[in-house]
Write a structure and sequence with these properties.
Layout (H helix, E strand, L loop, with lengths): L1 H8 L3 H16 L1 H14 L42 H11 L4 E5 L8 E4 H15 L8 E5 L4 H12 L3 E5 L9 H10 L3 E4 L1 H8 L4 H4 L5 E3 L21 E6 L9 E5 H15 L7 E3 L6 H13 L3 E3 L2 H6 L2 H10 L3 E4 L1 H8 L17 E4 L6 H11 L9 E6 L6 E4 L8 E4 L1 H5 L13 E4 L10 E4 L13 E5 L12 H8 L12 E10 L2 E7 L4 E3 L2 E3 L1 H9 L5 E11 L6 E8 L9 H16 L5 E5 L14 H9 L7 E4 L7 H6 L12 H14 L21 H15 L7 H4 L3 H8 L22 E9 L6 H9 L6 E2 L1 H7 L9 E2 L17 H6 L2 H16 L4 H4 L5 E5 L4 H6 L8 H5 L3 H10 L5 E4 L5 H14 L6 E7 L4 H9 L24 E9 H6 L6 E3 L18 H15 L5
Parallel strand pairs: 1-10, 3-4, 3-5, 5-6, 9-10, 9-11, 11-12, 12-13, 24-25, 30-31, 30-32
Antiparallel strand pairs: 1-2, 7-8, 13-14, 15-16, 17-18, 18-19, 19-20, 21-22, 23-24, 25-26, 27-33, 27-34, 28-29, 32-33
Length: 1054
């Protein structure tokens, strides 16, 4: 097929027309045409049209045997010439090659445990689709938590068949932060969460961090066999139908879901097939996680070709990289690959570990992408495995990203890998000067060529002008594989997916954020426009790492952190520079702070640091605008010019990681080890193999605190399996996160079912809370600035009540009666909140005031109400006055009477208007209503019932009889003056107004780098009990509640 395509590309227009006629004639007259071919071959004659092109006429004999190659020229009537969707492709293979194996799974990385044919795949996915259609509607999202395996594939295609949008994601681990998953759930609002029985069972546990926030329906898709023989496909499914939300591995502060259609996938598969000359015999071997864009691309390319894919779990590869190569050998895989570190791991495999019969001769495409390519990795891999049949021309470095479905450029199959050496000094200034290989320049490896002249451009990121060859700029791309934008994020979509060059308004390009240049037509990727750190194929945003560092200890300067990579020795080392507050430079426990930084980064990002430098404030190099200059930090580090007050370095970084996997300190053991033996082995292994200081290795030391990332944990689990005489999985390091807990568990000195739980304490005791936004409308002050000025001036916003009573039709009250009243209480922009005038008139002014002030508070917190829609934001309102309902009694026939006057609706209306899904409570405890609302909000945050709380208090003076009642009870001040905590006080002065706070858990606010206005350490609540009267205070009770709040916060009254 590909030889025919290559020949067609070399034909003239006349030849193509004649050739097309031949194909159409062959299609309708197969027998006659085959007879003609036979005669032509026998007589050694060819039709004249083929003589000029050199096309072998006998290649047409196999025309009907290769009809399963898509887009065959001129065959418009064939039902696979232009596939509509991935679902239609699966239906086609299920009909034309039902018994052909589609996917094979090796659960342990070595032995085949499951396989599925195309007909079985279609029947199971279609059967599951019928079940899913009872849960969600066309276009709903389905969040997918699966390990690598057949179940993921069935669920993915089942969602597509149902017209639902699969959202693949990394299954949350026990005892790990769930913030990213929480935000994905809020962002995509899934109709259900799908997973295996084991994962769904864990999520069902009420103690699971995700479960605490409330989850959509859960479905274990492997709990029963969903199947059907109905092969019909909905007419709604077209090329423009969304086929997937692929959440990028970008900033954890706001994960973005790339919207990919069926056409996006198909266009990208066509590029991949053409570039690597695939056909239905091109088997794939995949060890990459399937929720990752590259792993998912393996799955979909297999479907597109109608070929076969062999799958092994990622952890089995990391534990023993030889498993990857063995699978390629055993199944004669044509295509396989991964990030550069995969080849480096294999290059370090001990020679005695390689089986003598390893055969890599069928491996024709060894793609390398997702992280910068180290030319030494390719060289060492080839040197080690060329004697086993591996050919260096199989290497195909490539470049791509989730926003483009996957592939953007790649080296063509069979083409040599291009590389150039460039001048280091010029490169540091974003200039490309090619130098001889012997000149000590930096060697860069090409990522291939673009599909067409204008599909990939190098662009000046500031002027948007297209740059010539050998000029470094941002990589922009434009192809059928580029996604439709980010889900529910129009601003980011415009910025990233709708860029245009200054010279033309079309086409729209997608900004990759990556830097590179073209040289001799080849794309070279040089770095990241926004300094994204890539370790083992995974992206880490420096800002996220920096937030984790500065927020882990109060002695550290927020905004005084920089994270960057030093790759000088072909090993990417993650370095932290962190400023310490001036007041903490002397006397702080720096060893503890360094340990906390390591632990924070390892726990929240799964990343091991190689060095941390604590600096005095003001030591970070910055631009004139205050931005940290990361390149200058790296320069200072390499020049040994860092003046630190404390530092930590990991020792030799871990390139001998693969070597560590095989150099097991003890041979396999069949007897159970004692805890003492395990403790000793752990101490030796962590010191020798992972360069961890002996002083840090203690029984209560957390693995994350020691700086072990997910790869290190997987390696350590494999080593421990060999030593401890029992299977040890990486997940056990999360279930038993300290050295002592793990060794006790492995030695069976504690029950294996569960660890001892810590003593129960109030969730409220475990958090502090940050006020990140405020707004107010108070008497004499309609803004925060005005309120502060009034307080600073010692003013009171009191005014005569006579005007108010005239507004509401009540008596004027006492001659000197004064109160705190606000202007324009009855003014309200109903249309802004999409409320009709009739309904607005029936609304208590307190409800109107709350809506307006809530909006202002969210703006003050720099939060977009529209972006918060659908989130679990909680609303807690203190409100006790229902004066307005009395005036509405004569108009109770209006349909809005109940909703406009009910106190409970004061909170519910905010949740309704803004589409908040968290708790929504209106609280009436008289004078303390607002404080009790705040207390309830803090409890809700502590219990993860919400991640953001809107807390408000409101009051309106609308009834003169009520005012008269307060006067008769002797509660109000006869002097109409407020003297709080003053012996001269003679009562209180009534007032109205509204105040709203926006509150987060302090840790969340610090992680998000929010502006923190104040911190709430704790709160407490009680009741007076039997005092001197029903409304009289109880001094002892007040002392108790103050002490309770202080005790919870750890503060003292001093």
């Amino acid at each position: 097929m590909l030889r025919l395509q290559a020949a067609i590309e070399n034909m003239t227009h006349l030849e193509i027309e004649v050739y097309a006629d031949w194909i159409q004639f062959f299609h309708s007259r197969k027998k006659n045409f085959l007879h003609l071919i036979t005669l032509s071959q026998r007589d050694n004659k060819l039709p004249l049209i083929f003589l000029g092109t050199g096309v072998l006429f006998n290649t047409l004999i196999n025309l009907y045997t290769i009809c399963d190659i898509w887009k065959f020229p001129q065959m418009k009537d064939h039902d696979t010439s232009n596939p509509v969707s991935l679902t239609h492709i699966l239906s086609h293979w299920a009909s034309t090659k039902p018994d052909a194996t589609a996917y094979v799974f090796l659960a342990d990385g070595e032995h085949e445990t499951h396989s599925i044919s195309y007909s079985e795949l279609f029947q199971r996915s279609a059967g599951l689709a019928k079940k899913l259609q009872t849960i969600g509607r066309f276009g709903d999202r389905m969040l997918m938590f699966y390990p690598t395996g057949i179940e993921f594939i069935v669920a993915f295609y089942g969602c597509l068949h149902a017209g639902l949008i699969p959202v693949p994601a990394y299954a949350p681990k026990k005892n790990s932060k769930q913030d990213r998953i929480d935000k994905i759930i809020v962002d995509c609002s899934p109709a259900a969460i799908l997973g295996t029985t084991d994962i769904i069972h864990r999520l069902s546990d009420s103690d699971h961090p995700l479960a605490l926030n409330g989850l959509p329906p859960l479905l274990a898709t492997d709990s029963e066999q969903y199947t059907t023989t109905d092969l019909s496909i909905s007419d709604k499914i077209t090329g423009n139908t969304l086929a997937c939300l692929q959440y990028t591995s970008g900033s954890t502060g706001s994960p973005k879901g790339v919207m990919l259609t069926h056409e996006n996938f198909i266009k990208n598969q066509q590029f991949t097939q053409k570039n690597w000359q695939h056909d239905h015999t091109s088997d794939w071997m995949c060890w990459l996680p399937l929720f990752h864009d590259m792993g998912l691309g393996n799955i979909v390319q297999t479907l597109y070709l109608g070929s076969r894919c062999i799958l092994i779990p990622p952890e089995t590869f990391v534990q023993k990289p030889i498993r990857w190569l063995n699978a390629i050998s055993h199944y004669a895989a044509h295509t396989s690959g991964g990030p550069d570190f995969a080849y480096a791991l294999c290059a370090d495999i001990a020679t005695e570990e390689i089986p003598a019969d390893l055969d890599l001769s069928n491996w024709k495409v060894a793609y390398n992408g997702a992280e910068p390519i180290n030319p030494n990795s390719l060289l060492k891999f080839t040197e080690k495995f060329s004697r086993f049949g591996f050919c260096a021309q199989a290497f195909s470095p490539c470049y791509g990203l989730a926003e483009a479905t996957l592939a953007v450029t790649a080296v063509h199959k069979g083409q040599p890998v291009e590389s150039i050496s460039i001048d280091v000094a010029a490169f540091a200034e974003n200039r490309v000067i090619v130098v001889p290989d012997t000149a000590g320049g930096r060697v860069l490896v090409s990522s291939g060529i673009s599909p067409s002249d204008d599909s990939v451009r190098i662009v000046d990121p500031n002027t948007y002008e297209s740059l010539p060859e050998d000029a470094i700029g941002e990589i922009w791309c434009c192809s059928g594989g580029v996604g439709q934008g980010y889900w529910n994020n129009s601003e980011a979509t415009r910025t990233t997916f709708q860029a245009t060059l200054t010279s033309t308004s079309t086409p729209h390009y997608m900004r990759t954020g990556d830097l590179g240049f073209f040289h001799a037509g080849q794309l070279y990727v040089t770095g990241r426009l926004k300094d994204v750190i890539i370790i083992r194929g995974k992206n880490y945003y420096p800002q996220d790492i920096e937030f984790s560092c500065s927020g882990c200890h109060p002695a550290l300067v927020h905004g005084g952190t920089t994270a960057f990579v030093d790759g000088e020795q072909s090993i990417d080392k993650v370095i932290i520079f962190q400023e310490v507050k001036r007041t903490q430079v002397r006397g702080a426990d720096f060893e503890h702070i360094l340990a906390l930084i390591k632990k924070s980064v390892a726990t929240e990002h799964g990343l091991a640091l190689q060095a941390i430098y604590l600096l005095k404030p003001g030591q970070l190099p910055r631009t004139s605008s205050g931005k940290v200059r990361r390149a200058e930090c790296l320069k200072k580090l390499r020049a040994n010019e860092v003046l630190s007050i404390a530092q930590w370095q990991s020792g030799p970084a871990t390139p001998p990681l693969a070597e560590t996997i095989y150099e097991v300190p003890e041979s396999k053991c069949t007897t159970r080890r004692s805890q003492a033996e395990i403790d000793q082995w752990l101490a030796e292994t962590l010191t020798i193999k992972f360069s961890i200081s002996q002083d840090a290795i203690k029984s209560d030391a957390n693995f994350a605190e020691l700086g072990l990332d997910s790869i290190n944990i997987t390696v350590l689990a494999q080593l421990m399996t060999e030593f401890a005489g029992r299977s040890v999985s990486a997940t056990q390091f999360f279930d038993y996160p300290t050295l002592g807990e793990l060794s006790a568990h492995l030695a069976d000195t504690v029950p294996s079912q569960s660890r001892k739980r810590p003593a129960q304490s109030s969730a409220l005791d475990q958090h502090q809370y940050a006020i990140v936004g405020m707004a107010c409308d108070f008497p004499g002050a309609t803004s925060l600035e005005g309120f502060w000025q009034m307080i600073a001036a010692g003013q009171q916003g009191f005014a005569p009540l006579a005007t108010r009573w005239s507004e509401v039709g009540g008596s004027k009250g006492g001659e000197n009666a004064r109160a705190g009243v606000i202007d324009d209480l009855f003014m309200f922009d109903a249309r802004f909140f999409r409320i009709s005038d009739e309904e607005a008139r029936s609304m208590d002014p307190q409800q109107r005031l709350l809506l307006s002030t809530a909006w202002e508070a969210l703006e003050h917190a720099t939060l977009s109400p529209t972006e918060l829609a659908g989130s679990d934001t909680g609303v807690f309102i203190g409100i006790s006055s229902n004066d307005y309902s009395r005036g509405l009694l004569d108009h109770s026939d209006t349909p809005y009477f109940l909703t406009g006057s009910a106190l409970s609706l004061a909170a519910n209306r905010i949740s309704y208007v803004f589409d908040f899904k968290g708790p929504s409570l209106a609280i009436d405890t008289a004078c303390s209503s607002s404080l009790v609302a705040l207390h309830n909000a803090l409890n809700s945050l502590a219990n993860h019932e919400c991640d953001l709380a809107l807390v408000g208090g409101v009051n309106a003076l609308l009834s003169s009889p009520v005012d008269a009642s307060f006067n008769k009870a002797g509660m109000t001040s006869k002097s109409s003056s407020a003297r709080i905590f003053d012996a001269a006080a003679d009562g209180y002065v009534r007032g109205e107004g509204c105040g709203v706070l926006i509150i987060k858990r302090l840790s969340d606010a610090q992680d998000n780098n929010d502006r923190i206005l104040a911190v709430i350490a704790s709160s407490a609540i009680n009741q007076d009990g039997r005092s001197n009267g029903l409304t009289a205070p109880n001094g002892v009770a007040q002392q108790k509640v103050i002490h309770k709040a202080l005790d919870r916060s750890g503060l003292t009254a001093d």
